[in-house]
Amino acid sequence: MLTVSGLTKVFPGARALDGVDFAAESGEVHALIGENGAGKSTLIKVLTGVYRPDEGEVTYRGKPVRFATPLDAQHAGISTIYQEVNLVPLLSVARNLFLGREPRNRLGLIDFRRMHREAEEALRALGVRVDVGRPLRSLGIGAQQMVALARAVSVDARVVIMDEPTSSLEPREVQTLFGVIRMLRGRGIAVIYVSHRLDELYEICDAVTVLRDGKVVHTGRIAGLDRLRLVSLMLGREMSEVRSEGVTKFTGAHGTGDEPVLQATGLTVRHTLHDVSLSIRPGEVVGLGGLLGSGRSETAKAIAGALPPDAGRVVVAGAAVRTGSTPAAIRAGISLLPEDRKAEGIVPGLSVRENIALAALPGLSRFGLVDEKRIDRIVETFMKRLRIKASGPHQKVGELSGGNQQKVLLARWLAMQPKVLLLDEPTRGIDVGAKAEVQSLIDELAEDGLGVLLISSDPEELVEGSDRVVVLKDGAVVAELTGDGVTEGALLRAIASKGGDDD
């Protein structure tokens, strides 16, 4: 259905793709994997007309093609679902589903009644029931991702590309997605599936291609391919080395101070949080567990001043912090790494240097004049410490891989020398190599005496990385796991419990 031969794409200072060969067959789910920066996103953008290749050929349905725009690719039958939902938040769900192909009546006007009816039918087929007249932004990220999926499959596509489609989905929604993928496979549609979650690859994919440093290092059937072998191919390391390092890069318990560096008590937001309290000591990593919608992100935002609480108190190092004020929280030493790095974190049009220095600018200027040399020193320090892969500090951050964008955000807040770091899904949608680096960094920060709040949907990451775990359900604390009680079983029982019991 789709074949790539000798594809090469060069950016200033970097060869993103180097002679890549790739083929997606009709009725096949083909995994495309590799570390962040391996070339996956660049390959997808070449296939969909975002980039023009410097060398090589793309053949679609037996004919050479070179799409000038993503719309050309879509009209030809190549549909893409991106990790960050690329829809229009202010428009309704129905308008997003039919954007650019709205049904029209005899007068050439948009037929809203038909559009709403067909939008409801498309979403109902995926098990999603929402008011299609609502603005898209009023839905959660998981529901928005399902809308993007419905849009992709409602187009008469012959190739569907899915870039980390499950990163924001609940387990029930993941199974719905897999049902749709099997339906597409049964129709003879080629599915290119990008994911860092190995369980998903082995459950849904037929074939796999591994990219490393812009080159194909393996392609073939996924059945029978050992998982450790797959990880070692991605990382370019020996299987024995991968086997010895375990599931995560967390090293275990941390030495913590006696007095809390952060105390949040009675945080309440109408219909969202109900009397949430937690504390973090210097050098301690406190996990915040629960399902999507349990109030994890809202708790972090309430502490960081981004979500004004109706009641509650936040204290840092013994001093009360004015709630509902992000500047007050930052001055007190609270930094938040948000879950949605695209919408709430990076500024894609600015450089790596500008993104890192953004929050620190007030402290790096006098009388309105910025100390450029101090910025250069800070940026150089954190690019080296976090091993940010870029052609240089002046490369636009929007051109970096997801893992490197996440590191830039971390660098921004570490440059503020915070007392408390709130990390909301810090490893979501990044590869195993970048994930290990972020996990090691969290350990290092805790050892340096920083208080860390870790929010993660990955039970293994939460259990192995945390000294204590506070579990939320429906906006309230239902359990706190400590010591030997910090286990995956205890975490799952707490999430499934009724109220605060373990039934």
From TrEMBL:
Q: Which GO terms describe its molecular function?
A: ATP binding; ATP hydrolysis activity
Predominant cellular place of this UniProt entry's protein: membrane
The answer on whether this UniProt entry bears the keyword Repeat reads yes
Show where the ABC transporter domain sits.
2-238, 242-499
Task: Name one cellular component (GO) term.
Answer: plasma membrane
**Topology with regard to the membrane?**
Peripheral membrane protein
Q: What is this protein called?
A: Sugar ABC transporter ATP-binding protein
| Source organism | Streptomyces beijiangensis
